[in-house]
Give the backbone structure.
Amino acid sequence: MPIPFQDEEDLERLGTVAFLLLQATSEPVGYRGALFQINARGEPVEFTYNRVETPNTFLWRPADIRRVALRRLTASLLTLCPRIPRLILCLAEETPPELFTQDLTVMLPVGRIARDLESPSPAPPEVVEPPGEDGPAHLFWYPAPPEDGTSERALVEALIRRGLLLEPFERASSGLSELFGEADPAES
Amino acid sequence: MSTNGPWFREPELEQPPRWLGLIPRQPRLNPGQPVRMTFTAPLSPAARHVRTGRVELGPGRTMRLGTVREEQRHRGSVYVAGLEAFDPLLETLQETARWPTRETGEAGGFGSAAAGAPDPQKSLARMLAAVLQPPLDLLLAGEGPTEWPHPLLPYQIDGVRALLERPALLLADDMGLGKTIQAIAALRILIHQRRIGSALAVVPAGLIAQWRSELSSWAPDLRIATVYGEPSDRAWRWRAPAHLYLTSYDTLRMDFTGNPHAPVAREWDLVILDEAQRIKNADTDISRAAKRLRRIRSWALTGTPLENSIDDLASILQWVERAPPRATWHLVSAAEMRERLSRMQLRRRKADVLADLPPKLVSTLVLALTPPQRAAYDRAEKEGLIELHALGDRVRVRNVLELIVRLKQICNFDPGTGRSSKLDDLRERVRTLVAQGHRALVFTQFANREDGARAIAARLEVPALSYTGDLSPAERERVLTQFRQGDDHKVLVLALRAGGQGLNLQQASYVFHFDRWWNPAVEQQAESRSHRMGQTLPVHVYAYVCENTIEERIEKILKEKQALFDAIVEDATIDIGAHLSGDELFGLFGLRDPRGE
């Protein structure tokens, strides 16, 4: 019977963070996505991926198609994810706010990362967290930013300190490129 | 259709009315099947499982707990258990290593068939495991999974990058710049990136403890198997799962038999040779064994790749390049060798990369022999010459070398009275230095009890430790710890062969060469035990030479040789026994080589 203990320096206890990457594709027309979980050290833990083809027709507005496709794609990724992360982070430029504020209900903080405030903007229910001293970007949190003193907040701080707030998206993108080919110029 | 998970919910979509009552307004999608890859943490420490006085090594295999404790006492954290948890990981790592990555330029990617990886899903998992690892910059910065005990210096980062990028490299940095650290850091990153599964490091026996210490600091998450001891012990150590197998040159020679199924005969992802000048002679068993190791990557570490002749360098480069033996190295021009070196060697000098390293001040102390020594010396030289003449055509180089050794011993101590001008001078100097709080190293080529390292330590009249090749690994470690950390012994007398390479002794800022090895590269190696990274004081080096003796005469010849070899590799020098020509050796005593050697 092991003696219960907790190593305060053990980053494992901070849990994992899931980076949601969504990319539009033109061949085939649709979207591809990955949910990439890493621990606070940046080590990969889970990589879930999928793609969805969308109809190429004038019958539906592109925005409607995109919304439905991202919803289905994200739901499929979350469905298969066996390990509950502490947070979900995604890029504001490719993830519409309604995905998590209206279409999907997630029981953990979701942060959309905006590298600049020019193009993406927060939706009304989201809470804006400006970049701190070391932070590289704005964060739009829903339903609320992680509170101070929580593991979620410690995890965010660890990621920022280690330069891991944006970098895992590049790895996830490389993973998708290995799986489905290089990203194409289709707009998301 | 709605989807619900334990931590998210997708509400049912309300179907909008149809267009014109015919076409659904909800677009039909063609979703793919989601796929998940799970990556087990490769470096999580395995628990030791100890039960009923024995440690489990695997199914049906145990080891006595007392033996384990003894191992740990001598060797640090020896890995002995947790095999069940580690075996699948090892398999994963080995499969990953076989998987070609984009970096190699070979085929890879979804669904492509790689050699030895027929299962597309497994291949895919391996590829993703490599692609999704943290980037090199993050690993080198120590911000990701690899935290370093100290930040790597810029030149060390360059060195690690070079090791990672090249499957074959001779890392020939000046002694003391941290070649071991660079190799360990690069090894650790390769393991983290799933680019290799397991590696072999061959080091001089005296440096195994130091390697273990550096590994525990710079790669604490790697599993190490130290292969040493009796054949039965070595057999299971070779089979223990580990990221790195650490062994000595002699063990490699003994265990590398012709048996293709021997553990050491496996194909290694990486082989590291520390102090690679050990294979400078292509005709030795050690050299042959090292060159027969099957390996994907070859890293040779040495500060002195050329000690004696171009053949030294050729032998090391042959190992690095995995080139076939070549009998005509003596025909290779300096320019050609330089060109090969420029492709295979990474070399940085202390002066270039460690601007803050205190200077090294070298002085020669020319002493007169004591009267009894002089008498004994003159008598021995005269008798020796008579013997050489008497041998006539039967005289051989070996006879000359025996006379040289005899004369050098007399330069150290008078065989009759034990008087020594060197010891008298050294005694005065170390007494002053110790009183001032300094620590000193004394190197001698002799290890015997009469006039070797122990005799010098015993006669210094200040507490001194001795470090010789006949000490066990545990005794060596104890001596070094006493010297580094204790205040009772501030002088360490080392046999050059045992302590002249690899040790970190920056605590000392004074170095004495009690006698000369006649090989500047070896002397510089010894001086670099003190003059290396971490040294905060100027290092004073004193080399004793007795006037009007063999020591003066040979030094003159060596200086001429040094200039010649500097043209190829700056630290190049020669070794008297093997590489002074017969004419030069006989010329020391005014003789001619009867065979025209």
Q: What stands out?
A: Residues 4-8 of chain A have pLDDT under 50 and may be disordered. The longest strand of chain A covers residues 16-26. The radius of gyration of chain A is 17 Å. Chain A touches chain B through 55 residues (CB under 8 Å).
